[in-house]
Amino acid sequence: MTFNNKKSNIIQNIMAGSLNKVQLIGRLGADPEIKQMVNGKSVARLSIATSQSWKDKSSGERKEKTEWHRVVIFNEGLVNVVQQYVKKGANVYIEGQLSTRKWKDEASGQDKYSTEIVLQGYNSSLTMLDSRNSGNSNLVSENKSSLPNDNISQDNPDLDDEIPF
Q1: What is the pTM of this model?
Q2: Distance (Å, whole) CA 21 – CA 67
Q3: Predicted confidence (pLDDT) per residue in 21-36, tens digit
Q4: Pairing outcome for strands 42-55 and 62-73
Q5: Of 48, 98, 154, 160, which has the highest C-beta tally within 10 A?
Q6: pLDDT of 97-155, one tens digit each?
Q7: CA angle 100, 96, 77 (to 5 degrees)
Q8: Can you give the residue ranges of every domain in the chain?
Q9: Which of 48, 36, 51, 132 is nearest to 85 (CA)?
Q10: In angstroms, what CA-CA distances link 164 with 13, 158, 160?
Q11: What is the per-residue pLDDT across 112-127, written as a single tens digit (0 to 9) for each?
């Protein structure tokens, strides 16, 4: 997928009157949780913290607020990379979509809700901001993956290798 295709998709969504896109930079609060779904595919669950800091006007002291975000990754390639290379404390950049799911609590019978950032499909990506070797950023998205000293790639029919201009 090229930049122009992504930009075109975003513009189409805006013109349609909706856009569901989340971008976060934060640190993992725990090691990723990898589970098998009923269909045999794997899913990864992450807990990512983002922080905001400011100086309190009245006291002059530094304040900080941390928000925790639930992230669910359905893309098999990303799940494998997350399982191998992403650990507690890792600094990551993610792009995904907000999704709220509802279920019934078996004990109380009450409806429960959970809002998560979902990474699946071509509109999602994960960038590992920590480097194992040289300080380079590591891009991992649904359609391409690259890690230092490793080359985990998938064929991507959406890439325009030959641009006529």
Answers
A1: 0.68
A2: 18
A3: 999 999 999 999 999 9
A4: antiparallel
A5: 48
A6: 999 999 899 999 999 999 999 999 887 899 999 865 334 344 444 433 333 333 333 33
A7: 115
A8: 19-53+63-141
A9: 132
A10: 27, 16, 10
A11: 999 999 999 887 899 9
